[in-house]
Amino acid sequence: MSFQPSELAKPTLIVLLAWFLGQKNRLVEEWRTLIAPAAVTLVLTGLIAAQPDLGTAVTLFAIGSTMLFAAGVRLKYYLYPLAASPIAFYYFVYRVPWRWERILAFIHPVKYQHGRSHQLFQSLVAVGSGGMTGAGLMEGKQKLFFLPEPHTDFIFATVAEEWGLLGALAVILLFGTLCYRGLRSATLTRDPFARFLATGITAMVAIQALFNISVVVGLLPTKGIPLPLISYGGSSLFVTLAAVGVLLNITREMD
Questions:
Q1: Hey, is 78 helix, strand or coil?
Q2: pTM of the full predicted structure?
Q3: How many other CB atoms sit within 10 Å of the CB of residue 255?
């Protein structure tokens, strides 16, 4: 049994930012009040990126940015990381051979279907062969030694093949419902800490689901980000279930 320490970084960042942003009269509007939460986000993101685990690092940064946006950070402050993104791309992607190969495979999935983009190409085959209603439960063929990791990072491709477009849309609808309930709880609760906690947990689930589904259908380069509550796995499933449990408790207290 193994455990991924990077999974703990997500709830850790959410709790730290929720505590900081939930303090009375702690509005993140000026650059001075932005220093502490931005520093926490960048430190955790940098530690995860140094593992190296760029996918989780990007997820952490996105979660932190979402929580800061909910706290009232002005949009102009997002221009600074946007301006620095080409530098980060150069050092973390272009200069790292296997990451740059993933970018090439993402751009030319058919050209490299027998090499770098084999996983993405097989995922697209699985999604496309599902049709409207799918081949039927347990009747998918791509998971039989064609599609790598069909039970973890690419489980959505298996869902699309066996349940079709209708099943895939049903899964997306369920994630949308969960996110709606989470944002509703964050909006209606009167406790500032609970508000930002609900916002962070909702963002964690939504961002990971968005990244995973986008990778499966070829909208983003291949990266090992599990589909929350659906992908097989211990660390991610445990952390997600615990976080959703906290979100349900906030909803119960609100109701």
A1: helix
A2: 0.89
A3: 7
